[in-house]
Design a protein that fits this description.
Oligomer: heterodimer
Shape of chain A: globular
Largest interface: A-B, 33 and 40 residues
Structural class of chain A: alpha/beta
Shape of chain B: globular
CATH superfamily of chain B: Thiamin diphosphate (ThDP)-binding fold, Pyr/PP domains
Number of helices of chain B: 9
Strand order of the largest sheet of chain A: 2-1-3-4-6-5-10
Structural class of chain B: alpha/beta
CATH superfamily of the largest domain in chain A: Thiamin diphosphate (ThDP)-binding fold, Pyr/PP domains
Helix content of chain A: 25-40%
Low-confidence stretches of chain A: none
CATH class of the largest domain in chain A: Alpha Beta
Number of domains of chain A: 2
Radius of gyration of chain A: 20 Å
Largest sheet of chain B: 5 strands, parallel
CATH architecture of the largest domain in chain A: 3-Layer(aba) Sandwich
Number of strands of chain A: 12
CATH topology of chain B: Rossmann fold
Number of helices of chain A: 12
Number of domains of chain B: 1
Mean pLDDT of chain A: 95
Order of helices and strands of chain A: HEHEHEHHEHEHEEEHEEHEHEHH
Strand order of the largest sheet of chain B: 1-2-3-7-6
């Protein structure tokens, strides 16, 4: 099943048994149904529970908060994460604060689905990840699943959660296939996934970067290097225990983060590890992040902007003090190119 | 239409809120037991009281930082409010909110926000939920005149009009945002007329006339409840004391003592004081005073929350 279908199935299955759940956002009921993730929901659940909204992200989040006061569990969808920045007042000043500011008297069980763009010249305002910004805020939960199985299980957990959840999806993953269990199941928020066990080096990534990291893992394996690959899945809460246990074992770390370096999650992970025990590192840890500039549009510039499997492979070799051997590397040609327009 | 009993009820509720606010002003300094920014409602009582009396059980209000009047008018518990102002565990928000963040879910007081316009979409969202659930309740969004300048006000109006949501927007126009007068912030178009572009009714009322506010609220609430969509009520009023805190602030110079005195002449409580005899008034004051004493004692004696 595709990632997009897993998203749709999670919503449909929950909506069948919980009448308090509704889905809204610009384009939710349109024929393309947010890249397939809401297709057919309006037909099944009707326009009262699946509907288009005006283009007013801040009021929409505010209205989801208000609806949640009346026992609803709203899901809001933004076709690009960047649009969600218009709603930071309601997300940060309101949704995130409510449980705390009123001593737990009112809760805000809302899910804000946001989609990160990449490729086909999405450019500076259609490709931001911003997960570190949201993860900075107490009162929010932030997840960014990569596999179809996790995206369904985590969306179900997010809808059932009593806190506001920023649910970060990636446009490039929408057509990725994977096994997805039938029926309702939950992937817990706040639990990382060890995608591949290894002993030589720990590679920590999230969302689409897990795909690149897995490719790098294959190349490293061919070089005889056993990499442990960890998919964060959740940024708040962040599962530091899983990362800590891994780095204690390997002593080497590369964090791959589709985001800017300053004040990012990669730095946060390394800082938390150093605080715990700085002696666990056999070599300086490495952060692989975006250059310190917005995403460019031209295909050549854009390609240079993103971290690739090759970059991860090379950084791993450096961290392991091993010679970089490009001949062993399985090139990124394996990736299906993304064709737009959106 | 408004009988004597109702008029008396409105009077009593306004008097009660006035006495609470004035007592807070009296004891705020130098005791400094209430260590939170406190925006007093003195002078504006007719708005919350007039609006809330047009509501029924299940209706909700989503207030803003000048929250005491709305909280009390909608049936909030005074002891829990006082304890909140004192930062105590027994406070309505368990000491986490303070004066600007009051809540009483059972009475229909949704949490109040200190971000301008912050709870306007919350009211629209409550109304959306009422519509989805097919219950005939109404939500009130209350705000001051500066919130009209925020984008979220217009976003909420647009959506509420589009879906005919059962929400009533109440703007308490007290002419100032902190010390910035309306004229330096908005073009000379009356706030209630902004609704023209959204195709919904906008009305301006004398916000110091509780009967007029009540009548306007009754009409707006009936429309909303009947599925005929939202209304904006602009209630012209005036805060007597400083933006935040217990003092008078005409000495700052942004408004004159004469202007204040003119508005004090238009006191909303005095305007309906003929509903009670002098003796009745004395008894009311005595009773309310005792209740306020008890609430303050309760707040003082309550334990602080424990830092965890």
């Amino acid at each position: 099943m595709k990632y997009s279908e897993a998203l749709r199935e999670a919503q449909a299955q929950i909506m069948r048994y919980d009448e308090s759940v509704f889905v809204c956002g610009l384009g939710v009921p349109d024929p393309k149904g947010v890249f397939g993730s809401t297709v057919g929901l309006e037909e099944e659940f009707g326009p009262k529970r699946v509907f288009d909204t005006p283009a007013c992200e801040n009021a929409t989040v505010g209205m989801m908060i208000g609806a949640s006061f009346q026992g609803m569990r709203p899901i809001m969808v933004n076709q690009r994460l960047d649009f969600t920045l218009l709603a930071l007042d309601q997300i940060i000043n309101h949704a995130a604060k409510w449980k705390w500011m009123f001593g737990g008297v009112q809760r805000v069980p809302i899910v804000i689905r946001v989609i990160v763009g990449r490729g086909w010249g999405q450019g500076a305002q259609h490709s931001q990840t911003m997960h570190a910004l949201f993860a900075h805020i107490p009162g929010l939960k932030v997840v960014a699943p990569v596999s179809p199985k996790d995206v369904k299980g985590l969306l179900i957990s997010s809808i059932e959660d009593d806190d506001p959840v920023i649910f970060i999806e990636h446009r490039r993953l929408y057509d990725e296939e994977g096994d997805v269990p039938q029926g309702i199941y939950r992937v817990p928020i706040g639990k990382a996934n060890v995608v591949q066990e290894g002993v030589d080096i720990t590679l920590v990534a999230l969302s689409h970067m897990v795909v690149e990291t897995e490719k790098a893992g294959i190349a490293l394996k061919e070089k005889g290097i056993s990499a442990e690959i960890i998919d964060m899945r959740s940024l708040r809460p962040l599962d530091m225990d899983t990362i800590l246990n891994s780095v204690k074992k390997t002593g080497r770390l590369v964090v791959i983060d589709d985001d800017w370096k300053l004040c990012g999650i990669a730095g946060e992970i390394i800082a938390a590890l150093v605080e715990n025990d700085h002696k666990m590192f056999k070599a300086p840890p490495i952060r692989l992040t975006w250059p310190d500039m917005p995403t460019p549009t031209s295909v050549v510039l854009e390609s240079a902007h993103y971290t690739t499997a090759k970059d991860i492979y090379e950084a791993s070799c450096i961290c392991l003090d091993r010679r970089v051997d490009p001949a062993l590397f399985i090139d990124e040609e394996r990736e299906q190119p993304f064709s737009g327009p959106f | 239409m408004i009988n004597h009993d109702l008029k008396k009820k409105l009077y009593k509720e306004m008097l009660y809120i006035r006495m609470i606010e004035e007592r807070i002003a009296e004891i705020y300094h130098p005791a400094d037991e209430m260590k939170c920014p406190t925006h007093l409602y003195t002078g504006q009582e007719a708005v919350a009281v007039g609006i809330c009396n047009a509501l029924i059980e299940g209706d909700v209000v989503c207030p803003y930082h000048r929250s005491h009047g709305w909280y009390m008018a909608k049936g909030g518990d005074l002891k829990a409010m006082m304890a909140e102002l004192f930062g105590k565990e027994a406070g309505c928000s368990k000491g986490w909110g303070g004066s600007m963040h009051l809540v009483d879910v059972g009475s229909g007081v949704m949490g109040s926000s200190s971000i301008l316009g912050g709870t306007i979409p919350h009211a629209a969202g409550c109304a959306l939920a009422f519509q989805i659930k097919e219950v005939e309740n109404v939500a009130i969004a209350s705000c001051g005149d500066a919130a009209i300048e925020e984008g979220v006000f217009h976003e909420s109006m647009n959506w509420a009009s589009l879906k005919k949501l059962p929400v009533v927007f109440v703007c308490e126009n007290n002419l100032y945002s902190t010390s910035s007068p309306l004229g330096v912030r908005q073009p000379p178009v009356e706030i209630y007329k902004r609704t023209v572009s959204y195709g919904i009714p906008g009305v301006r009322v004398d916000g110091n006339d509780v009967l007029k506010v009540y009548e306007a609220a009754l009409e707006a609430v009936s429309l909303a409840r009947a599925g005929d969509g939202p209304t904006l009520i602009e209630a012209m009023t005036y805060r007597w004391r400083e933006h935040v805190g217990p003092n008078y602030d005409y000495s700052l110079g942004y408004r004159s003592k004469q202007e204040l005195e003119e508005w004090i002449e238009k006191c909303p409580i005095k305007r309906v004081s003929d509903v009670v005899s002098e003796r009745e008034e004395e008894l009311l004051i005595e009773g309310f005073s005792k209740e306020i004493d008890e609430a303050i004692d309760f707040a003082r004696q309550s334990p602080f929350p424990k830092p965890s």
